[in-house]
Each structure stands twice: as structure tokens, then as C-alpha cells.
Recover the amino acids of this structure.
């Protein structure tokens, strides 16, 4: 096994360190977060940091980089309190990745990619039409992470749109059927194949597969 | 497309809602977090919420559920300031899942599963021997999330152990080679297959695959 200590990490060339450290969390979620400014300029950007925070109330979080540079997503969030989270699927990885380019603030990434704005459920922020799972969220809080000046944005789920045949009878969404992808590091996209679903774990009880219980 | 609004979500049966809302973030990371108490009782538990917070300094975060119930991981973190993050791979998904059973606080999950404690780099907390990527972290902060009484734990990377042939020349770790798995919802484990690595995105520049640049 290769051993790397902190002193070594701190001396690494910047891009090498970015590639290495971004690989450490394991696989990351791949989502397009879309917002619209009060003067109706839309914004969509890829995020690999969306996480589940809780089911009741239904809460999701994501990390925003330091806001010293102009961050359209942050400004729109604060002024409109609305955003959508849209799963990246294998058919749109290039369009999704392209949203990470630094476009001028007056230009919508929707215009510059083949991603399509979709408006529904009387929601102000656009959904991404190409996504098979679309989530409309209300901003509820944001936490400043003093160690590196990032912010964790917390949103409550208000609207859900799910393509047919993805949800199972017990509520679970089969992300393989949704063709949702996952991110490895900063620039690698992977598709996932289900290995198993396991029963609720209890002390001294053997785990069983619950895959065949699905309908 | 199926539409579910917030009113509907709030009326769902509990387990159905847990399955649904836990699927919304997209694929989650699968890690075993291990700690040791001051009186030398070890603890290891699976977490699907480990995220990348930043590369310089190298920071990772994860979410701890409300601490009203006894949480060994939390107590050990606060008293020792050390933990390890260990990637779950496809060969240990059952052992990893079993760590979520509610064992008595005096019992180590290492004893109750076939996972093995490993001590190295003079680190107090145990690494999980079976993991191909092992990370020793120092606790640096924790943020109380008032919306649902969770905490985001922030750790700095101090030690890294990476199995041979996983790291590429540009620093990136190929998680497919590491056989790292990803989590869909609360109980589904998936393996991932690389689709592509894409070049750094710039306005008006065509993306290219950087996969063939790897050695």
C-alpha cells in the first residue's frame, strides 16, 4: 500500500492535489442545480456535493465554494430562496460538465448547452427538462464553514418529479433505472450497477437480500 | 412523469418516506468510519454522507444523526479528536451494512463483523484492514444543523493509505479499480463503471475525453 502523509499532501502540485483529495470521499452525487435571478436570468451548474440531511422534514444540502468570486447560484439563492436539483444521467454528462465553465454572469448556461429550462408546479426556478429526477427546493438555511470559507446550503424538498418506472413499491428510487450517474474526483463520470439491497441490520440477525421483494 | 408535492410527502408512511427521500440526493459515498474511545473500545459504522469540502487544506465532512440517543462515534470523536474513513468495497458490503445494527455501547462492531482493526502511522483510531483506501482524519470542527438536530463533522486529512494500482499519474484515484461501492437510498449497494473523464470546461471550448491520457 502507498502511504501519503499530511506533510506530503501540503507539498503536492495544486492540480495533482485537487485530483487526489477530490477522490477521497468515494463516489459523489451528480446534480444540476438551477436558479433564476429576480431579473429572470437563469443559471444552472453541476454540483457533486448534494447530500441527504434528513427525511422528516425532507432536507437536502450542498456545498458552495467561497463567495469571494461572483457566484450566480449563491446570489440567486439568497434573493429568491428557490432552487432545483436535477439528477445528471448518462445521456447528458457532457452538457452537465460544460456548465462548470466560467461564463459571464449575464449569460445563462442553459443557452450555452443543450440543457432545457422547464417550468412547472408554479415554481419560479427552472427544472432541467432532460433530468429523470427533478426536485424543487426552498432555501431554509446556510452554514458558513470557517475552515475554508465554503457554505453548506440547506433546502427543503417542496416538489418532486420522477420519470415512470423508477420508483419501487416501498418508496425507493432505482437510480440505475433512472440512469443517474456518479462522480469520481472532479472530472470522471461513472454509471452504477446494483449489487444488492440488504435487510435492516439487527444484532445477531443474518442479513438477507430484499431485492426479490421488489415489484 | 410522476409528481409528488410536499403535502403528499408529509403524509407518507415513515419507511416509504425514508426510502424515497434517501434516494433523492443521487448516489452516495459508502464509507466505514472508525473511532476508539479513551478506554480503548473501538467503534466502526457505515456512513453514506461523507463529502469533499476542500482540497487545500484537505477537508472532508460527514453528517451525524441527532445525538439524543447514545452515539459512540460522536462521543469518541469529541474525546479523542481522531477518526478514520475507509472505503467500502464490493467484497465487504454485508459486513459494512451490519455495522448499522444497534449494538450495545460496550461491544465493538469489529468483534461482531469480520472487519479487522488495523493500527499504523502511530494513529490512535483503527483503520479498517479490508478497505483499499484508508484515511486518517483529525477532527477540526462540527456544525449543528438546527433544522433537524444533525451535526456536520469536519475533519482534516492527516494520513492516506491507498492500495497499489489505484492512483493515476495526475493524482486521481480510479475508484473502479479500488472496487469502491456507492449507496442508493438506505440499503442498496452498487458498483460503478467509468464512462469518461472530461477536460476542464471553458466557455466556447469543446470538451474532450482525458481518459486516454492516463498511464
Amino acid at each position: 500500500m502507498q502511504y501519503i502523509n499530511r506533510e506530503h499532501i501540503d507539498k503536492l502540485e495544486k492540480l495533482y492535489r485537487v485530483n487526489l483529495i477530490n477522490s477521497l470521499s468515494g463516489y459523489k452525487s451528480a446534480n444540476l442545480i438551477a436558479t433564476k435571478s429576480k431579473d429572470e436570468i437563469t443559471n444552472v451548474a453541476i454540483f457533486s456535493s448534494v447530500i441527504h440531511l434528513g427525511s422528516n422534514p425532507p432536507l437536502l444540502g450542498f456545498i458552495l465554494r467561497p463567495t469571494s468570486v461572483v457566484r450566480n447560484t449563491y446570489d440567486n439563492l439568497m434573493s429568491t430562496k428557490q432552487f432545483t436539483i436535477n439528477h445528471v444521467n448518462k445521456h447528458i454528462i457532457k452538457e452537465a460538465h460544460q456548465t462548470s465553465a466560467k461564463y459571464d454572469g449575464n449569460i445563462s448556461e442553459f443557452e450555452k448547452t443543450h440543457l432545457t429550462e422547464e417550468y412547472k408546479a408554479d415554481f419560479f426556478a427552472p427544472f432541467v427538462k432532460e433530468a429523470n429526477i427533478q426536485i424543487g427546493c426552498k432555501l431554509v438555511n446556510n452554514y458558513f464553514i470557517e475552515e475554508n470559507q465554503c457554505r453548506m446550503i440547506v433546502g427543503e424538498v417542496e416538489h418532486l418529479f420522477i420519470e415512470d418506472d423508477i420508483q419501487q413499491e416501498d418508496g425507493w428510487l432505482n437510480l440505475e433505472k433512472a440512469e443517474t450517474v456518479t462522480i469520481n474526483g472532479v472530472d470522471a463520470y461513472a454509471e452504477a450497477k446494483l449489487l444488492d439491497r440488504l435487510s435492516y441490520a439487527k444484532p445477531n440477525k443474518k442479513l438477507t437480500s430484499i431485492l426479490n421483494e421488489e415489484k
